[in-house]
Amino acid sequence: MILVTAANGHQGRYVVRKLAAAGYQVRAARATAGRDEELLELGASEVFVGDLADPGTYARAVEEVDTIYHVGPAGAPSEVQMGMVMIDAALQAGVGHVVFSSVLHPHVDILQHRYKCEIEVALIESGLSYTILRPCDYMMPEVHVDVPWRTGEFPVFWQETTRRLHSFIAMEDLSDVVVKVIREQEAHFAAAYDLAGPDRLDGAEAARILSRVMGHPIRSEHVDPEDRLRAQWRSDDSHDLDEHRMEMLQSISRWYGQHDFIGNPSVLTWLLRRPPTSFEAFARARVAELRSTVPGLLEAGP
Ligand SMILES: NC(=O)c1ccc[n+]([C@@H]2O[C@H](COP(=O)([O-])OP(=O)(O)OC[C@H]3O[C@@H](n4cnc5c(N)ncnc54)[C@H](OP(=O)(O)O)[C@@H]3O)[C@@H](O)[C@H]2O)c1
């Protein structure tokens, strides 16, 4: 049995679907009760509901589990606690392999990078058999394609500039790597993999790609972190923006405004044994889906 946490998150949904398709029994963990169908439909064998920052809850989640794929939910103030609790639970239960979803450059001064760095150190020191995955920025359809499709603007939320370069990774690629390291186990023990796609894009270049793909002009626009937060977490006015998430996003925005957030695609290419997905290929696939269902800026008319 494989435990996948943050199972209904951006990457969790891909990982659950692919592990199930590869024949694994998946226990998909989330916080909210009453919506098991969403994960069972992806192929999860079981849904586990509870706050994984609680030691007793994590201990129950790992019963009869051979492998943990641990993703700390984005913006959770208890992310470090959850990571430490996971390590204790894995040790107690004798879990054979822990795969930890970290982040590219966990050492830089961004709040949740510091959280992940702390968890990485504890994992390395734990004696568990582990693999650390360090993905760069996710390609997120709802942010990077759907928003430009509807508004004509590619939102960039880092401070003062849209010029900094970014590497992006497709969730299809990240989830393929997760399945591979879980299947091949020992070959990936004590490894930490930087995972970056082939692009190094600033806002203007991303907008140029989207213009080409969508067939009409897309502008790169600076947006306030709070607006970005609403888009990213699909929040609305009924959903309070909590202070910790805001602090976290401002910390990203500050660092991203001062530095490029780029990685090297060689490790991802080696793991996939194929070229990683480019931002343009990702955008083309999403636009093809949107064309058949959702009118875009021009199609919608005035
Ligand atoms: N976005 C990026 O570009 C990027 C890049 C690199 C790394 N990362 C990292 O990737 C991770 C997030 O990945 P994601 O966006 O795929 O996930 P996500 O969307 O943040 O995950 C949300 C999931 O976590 C569950 N959850 C929230 N609080 C919980 C709790 N206390 N106990 C148990 N489950 C809980 C939610 O349950 P419900 O479904 O019930 O609400 C939901 O299933 C973060 O650590 C982030 O820092 C992100």
Beta content: 5-15%
Which strand order does the major sheet show?
A: 3-2-1-4-5-6-10
Give the structural class.
alpha/beta
Give the uncertain stretches in residue-range form: none
Which H/E pattern describes the elements? EHEHEHEHEHEEHEEHEHEHHHHH
Describe this structure in words.
Helix 4 links the parallel strand 4 and strand 5. The protein has 302 residues and is an alpha/beta fold. The chain is built from 13 helices and 11 strands. The chain has helices at 12-21, 36-40, 55-61, 79-93, 111-126, 141-151, 171-184, 203-214, 225-232, 243-258, 266-272, 279-293, 297-300, and strands spanning 2-4, 26-30, 46-49, 67-71, 97-101, 130-135, 137-138, 153-156, 168-169, 191-195, 219-222. The longest helix has 16 residues, at 111-126. Strands 3-2-1-4-5-6-10 form a 7-stranded parallel sheet, sandwiched between helices. A two-stranded parallel sheet has the order 7-9. A two-stranded parallel sheet has the order 8-11. The structure holds NADP nicotinamide-adenine-dinucleotide phosphate.
Features:
single chain, 7-stranded parallel β-sheet, two-stranded parallel sheet, 15% strand, globular, binds NADP nicotinamide-adenine-dinucleotide phosphate
